[in-house]
Design goal:
Elements: E1 4-10, E2 27-28, E3 31-32, H1 33-42, E4 47-54, H2 59-70, H3 74-77, E5 84-88, H4 93-102, E6 110-115, H5 123-136, E7 138-144, E8 149-154, E9 159-165, E10 172-181, H6 182-190, H7 192-195, H8 202-208, E11 214-217
Parallel strand pairs: 1-4, 1-6, 4-5, 7-11
Antiparallel strand pairs: 2-3, 6-10, 7-10, 8-9
């Protein structure tokens, strides 16, 4: 049953990386970061379409990328990439997701939202996430926090520890993709409490509605590209 849409958030400015091009179009193993995620999702039979929310500055670059992958032989990809489409991203993550949601096929029942800067997500993790979403309505990939976490405040001259957050065993680091039944995500994006908050991930908006979100253990390999050294990693 092909009833899943993937929205890839690729509209960020990549300010921390300080590269000449935005993160989705830098290369890992000779291929653009964005292409790795597209290939992973395209190999999942229940995914019927991939919608990429792009920065307006990158639209031509993204169109060229999609054009190049449409002609990749099916024997290399599992199937053709004709289901990949672009929408214009917004100034915030919520706006980009909302723009992507407007373009979702009426036949889709589940929406997965993924960061373009996470090229190392595995097909097996995505499939386990999808199973959880079908069962519960909302789920995310995450991994247990292994470091001691400090809450810190900044004075004029230094950083000061305010609190050590314990117990650590209850802390998990959120990853993407994050998946939701379509109607739940629509309600979350239109909820009054989410419109005035700058959510750093999509599950936060669903949580604010009071809807329970299931955690599916992900992989430590599913990092978000933030530094130049991350681009030298291998699958």
């Amino acid at each position: 049953m092909k009833d899943i849409t993937v929205i890839i958030a690729a509209a960020g400015e990549s300010k921390r990386l300080k590269a000449k091009v935005h993160k989705p179009y830098l290369t890992i193993s000779g291929k653009p970061v964005l292409l790795h995620s597209i290939r992973t999702f395209s190999r999942i039979p229940s995914v019927q379409e991939i919608i990429i929310a792009v920065n307006p500055k990158d639209r031509k670059r993204a169109q060229s990328l999609i054009h190049s992958i449409k002609v990749v032989p099916a024997r290399l990809t599992g199937r053709q990439f004709g289901q990949v489409r672009l929408v214009t991203g917004g100034a915030t993550r919520q706006e980009s997701v909302a723009n992507g949601l407007k373009a979702v096929s009426p036949n889709s029942h589940i929406v997965l939202i993924h960061d373009a800067a996470r090229p190392f997500v595995t097909r097996s993790d995505v499939i386990r996430l999808i199973k959880a979403v079908r069962r519960t309505g909302a789920a995310i990939l995450a991994i247990p926090v292994v470091d001691t976490i400090k809450r810190v405040s900044q004075t004029e001259r230094q950083l000061i520890i305010e609190e050590t957050i314990t117990p650590r065993k209850s802390l998990w680091a959120a990853q993407t993709p994050q998946g939701f039944k379509k109607e739940i995500l629509i309600k979350a994006l239109s909820h009054p409490d989410t419109k005035c908050r700058d959510a750093t991930d999509d599950s936060f908006m669903v949580e604010m509605m009071g809807y329970p979100v299931t955690v599916v253990k992900g992989s430590e390999k599913n990092i978000k590209i933030t530094a130049p050294a991350d681009l030298s990693r291998r699958f």
